[in-house]
Amino acid sequence: MNPPISFGRFFLPGPTEVPPDLFDAMRRPVVGHRSAEVSGLVEAMQPSASRLFRTSRPVYLSTSSATGMMEAAITNLTRRRVLCLTNGSFSKRFHAIAEATGRPADALEAEWGEPNLPERLHDALGAAPGRYDLVTVVHSESSTGVLNPLQELAAVVHEFDDVLIAVDTVSSLAGAPVETDEWGLDFVLTGSQKAVALPPGLALAVASKRALARAREVEHRGFYFDILKFEKNLERWQTPNTPAVSLFFALDRQLNRMMEEGLEARWERHAAMARRTYEWVDRTAARTGRPWRVLAPEGYRSPCVTVIMLPDGLTGPEVVSRTLAHGYTVAAGYGPLKQPSFRIGHMGEHTLDELEALLAVLDEVL
């Protein structure tokens, strides 16, 4: 039997570890979701939630996974054709959603482990003027550990009239800089279970005024994920569908924690953990004389998750099993990277000291 996992030992790239006090918050008695208490809670959370997204716009709260808000981006924001920037499993999901909902879409693919570059995006949009009215991108692709150059990609989109940009920040928001207003991002979504460090079950999103104008032009936006309904319900500090009130209690406490830490300090803590992980990989390669390496190239590495390519003779599932035997949890690679790699999710409320303890265990078992 595997030993129990204690706090500070759970390094999945999502869901990430949840501080015990957030579960305490969730044990509050359930209240009516249309009550004045819940409306007051939603209103009280809005200033911190908007600061988290670095926006002046309100933040939508959806009882769903982040995939629901990915679907909202597709069904609300395109009238013609979507260009999906793909470089891993989760960025491909945008394209799959477009196909499943009957929206014409093309994929602009980069190799797994490589970033989506602004020059390629510019060439694709410039080669077909008027073909696309929406670009989708995953900021931190947690299947590969690549951080796409979001600010530069958004700047390219702004060069083309009538094109919006929708961004998945599921494994970057609260762990890496995301400047919604400054970078001109039209739709930004995240989930509760990664750098935000809550249990799964909530999606959060922000829509620009340009996005709302576009949604008004789209006739069939769907029902559950109609962003105009989210916008209208926030006028009375409500959600259009029954919310997970217990998760709201935890979100309120966690937003306060993040604001107390400060976003810049939080970003730096994540960056420090990432740098230490890269150092460990390089040191391990030098010490063993074997080709350990970080998959993502320098300059395009997520501060929240690192994919580590293994030398021959080791597999991702084997690393997971050996590490779990010592009470620590990491993840095997994703999809085609499952066997040749493993992943460390250094995000949420993890500290550098907790990461050091994990790396010491990896030294021992590998």
Explain what you see.
The strands form three sheets. The protein has a seven-stranded mixed beta sheet with strand order 1-9-8-7-4-2-3, sandwiched between helices. The two termini are 21 Å apart. The model is unreliable at 1-5 (pLDDT under 50). The longest helix has 26 residues, at 263-288. The chain contains twelve helices and 13 strands. Helix 3 packs across helix 4, helix 5 (118-127) runs parallel beside helix 6 (150-157) and helix 10 (263-288) packs parallel to helix 12. The chain is an alpha/beta fold and 366 residues long. Helix content is 41%, strand content 14%.
Tell me, briefly, the overall form: globular
Low-confidence stretches: 1-5
**Biggest β-sheet strands, sense, barrel:** 7 strands, mixed
What portion of residues belong to β-strands? 5-15%
The count of helical stretches stands at 12
The helix/strand series, from N terminus to C terminus, equals: HHEHEHEHEEEHEEEHHHHEEHEEH
The percent of residues in helical segments reads 40-55%
| Strand adjacency order, main sheet | 1-9-8-7-4-2-3
What number is the mean pLDDT? 96
As a whole number of angstroms, the C-alpha radius of gyration is 20 Å
List how many beta strands DSSP finds.
13
What structural class do the secondary elements suggest?
alpha/beta
Distance between the termini: 21 Å
